[in-house]
# Entry
Amino acid sequence: MQVLGIDIGGSGIKGAPVETETGALLAERFRIPTPDPAKPKAVAKVVAEIVTHFDWHGPVGCGFPAVVRSGVTLSAANVHKKWIGTNAEALLTEVTGCPVRMLNDADAAGMAEMAFGAGRARQGTVLLITIGTGIGTAVFVDGKLVPNTEFGHIEIGGVDAEWRASDAARQRERLSWKVWAGRFNQYLQVMEKLLSPDLIILGGGVVKKYEKFLPLLSTQAEIVPAQFLNEAGIVGAALAAL
Ligand code: BGC
# Structure
């Protein structure tokens, strides 16, 4: 089946039609900068532009960096506070004229990795962590998603984990790979203590440079980079709309 996958991020909103049987993009992805301020109506307008760009009339799946339950966005760590309590699925369905399914962005990336990437055919507990502006998490048990885990906000030493260990923190504080990996390792240790995952998959833009930090991490679980780079959010969002 063909579904338009859209990934709403802090700096860009990206979309492409996806063949959900294979996870392949059917056209080059189209990106529009995220409006500032990124209030629901302004973002919805951009999503509608992406739908128009592909002349799309079918189902749409959309990843969003917040808790999403039954189509309603319920948190706003790195997005405009106006999203809290917005029925995002209803809003996007109305502006695009297409049936829209919305889910958390890390959950979307995890669905793509589990179906076609580093988590393919993996049983047990799989933890996917996306490292970017925030830290996003997706947990799968025997291939089934436990949605909206939000483990990027676990407090370590009284501080929100993503504030110290995200890629944004690395850049903001100009941390060396070694110092940043030390912080991220501490985060992984907490996650292992809580979840005992069988496999940890690391995703997000920084994973392009995984040779710089993966050797500095020590976990009990097997730890691997994601296989999809920029496209996991788009592909997973499309899968969620099935
Ligand atoms: C948000 C999550 C999101 C993650 C990655 C966090 O700040 O709370 O919902 O998945 O960032 O974008």
